[in-house]
Write a structure and sequence with these properties.
Length: 157
């Protein structure tokens, strides 16, 4: 069975205040509006994930919460998503394959952009804040191969 994977980049965040850590940045007012549009589209489309992995960054956690209970209820925080490399994300996907046929990763750039470029090649869309991309991956092998994904949908906020 293939894996349908939703990739959501956190919504727009406030600038980092002096003396604070990047991981603690909150969504901006724009980001709060962006994520509501993403949530509306996801619920309209249906096919909600049965597993969600979310970065521990505050802005990613706020994005997750705004996507609604149906999504937040199946989520777990995954520390490896924050500042993830391409290899980190490919390893995460390999771990998802045996657990779910529909999953979501809520994360950051450049990791998500690098992942899409690897999986889709030159067809990869840009990953702006609050963008949502749905791809399908074959179930074999578990760790996705370069160019193995099919782009099903992409929307920017």
């Amino acid at each position: 069975m293939s894996l349908m994977l939703d990739l959501v980049r956190h919504a727009d965040a406030r600038e980092r205040a002096p003396g604070t850590e990047d991981i603690d940045r909150r969504l901006s007012a724009l980001g709060e509006r962006q994520v509501l549009r993403v949530a509306e589209r996801l619920h309209e489309r249906g096919q909600l994930p049965t597993l969600v992995l979310c970065s521990p960054a505050r802005r990613a956690q706020q994005t997750l919460a705004a996507l609604g209970y149906d999504i937040a209820a199946v989520a777990r925080t995954e520390p490896r998503i924050y500042e993830a490399s391409l290899d980190d994300l490919l390893d995460l996907i390999a771990g998802i394959q045996p657990l779910a046929s529909r999953a979501m990763i809520i994360g950051h750039n450049p990791g998500l952009q690098d992942l899409l470029a690897y999986l889709l090649g030159p067809r990869a869309p840009g990953v702006g804040t609050a963008s949502h991309t749905r791809i399908r991956l074959p179930s074999v092998p578990e760790r996705p191969l370069r160019g193995s994904a099919v782009l099903l949908e992409h929307r920017d906020a």
